[in-house]
UniProtKB/TrEMBL annotation:
Species this protein is from: Sphingomonas naasensis
Domain Thymidylate kinase-like: 10-201
Protein name: Thymidylate kinase
Keywords: ATP-binding, Kinase, Nucleotide biosynthesis, Nucleotide-binding, Transferase
Keyword Disulfide bond: no
């Protein structure tokens, strides 16, 4: 019998190691006979990548909080319609580097927008599609910010708009992820993202495998 296709989202503060973990999880799923693809938000489609370039670069005052939320949601509509749902329909699992949990954390807890409004917009615009499993990579934001800023500088990538915000902003984001996990433990696992990349990879894969055995 074919393995069921699942929708996974990897979430966490900036610099927690999401990009490496999403790649490692996709490799693990494919290596163990479960078809999977990697995608990201904002992005995943040509439209989403254009929005990504707009929203992650420049100064923080480039966008009003409402505009930021609507742009993120517009990218997600295309992402779900063009990538996520078609893959799941063919029995292919999807691993996304960020999803709506990031919107609840960044635009909700971070920017102060009402979580109920964000969830309502998600229901209406995106069709209320939620991941089967959200992997929250939990890390002290002070450590994550140092990592993220260093990576962006080294690669000369202009995607550091959120990294310019103060530590309190990123602490609210971390707490939001933990609150989301506590509110829906059946579809969240929290993984300690401190330590070496190999340690975090092993913790993540072990957590996913344990969740799959119980699903």
């Amino acid at each position: 019998m074919d393995e069921p296709a699942f929708f996974y989202a990897v979430e966490g503060v900036d610099g927690c190691g999401k990009t490496g973990i999403t790649r490692a999880l996709v490799d693990h799923l494919n290596d163990t006979g479960r078809r999977a693809i990697l995608t990201r938000e904002p992005g995943g489609t040509p439209q989403g990548e254009q929005i990504r370039a707009l929203i992650l670069s420049g100064s923080d005052d480039a966008w009003d909080a409402n505009s930021e939320l609507l742009l993120m949601t517009a990218a997600r509509v295309e992402h779900v319609r063009r990538v996520i749902l078609p893959a799941l329909a063919t029995g292919t699992s999807v691993v996304s580097d960020r999803y709506v949990g990031s919107t609840i954390a960044y635009q909700g807890a971070g920017r102060g927008m009402a979580e109920d409004f964000i969830r309502q917009l998600h229901r209406v615009a995106v069709g209320d599609l939620w991941p089967d499993l959200v992997i929250v990579l939990d890390l002290d934001p002070l450590i994550g910010l140092a990592r993220s800023k260093g990576r962006l500088r080294a690669a000369a990538i202009d995607e550091g708009r959120f990294e310019t915000l103060d530590l309190a902003f990123h602490q609210r984001i971390r707490q939001s992820y933990l609150d989301q996990a506590a509110a829906a433990p059946q579809r969240h696992v929290v993984v300690d993202a401190s330590g070496t990349p190999d340690m975090v990879r092993r913790r993540t894969i072990d957590a996913v495998e344990a969740w799959q055995r119980g699903s």
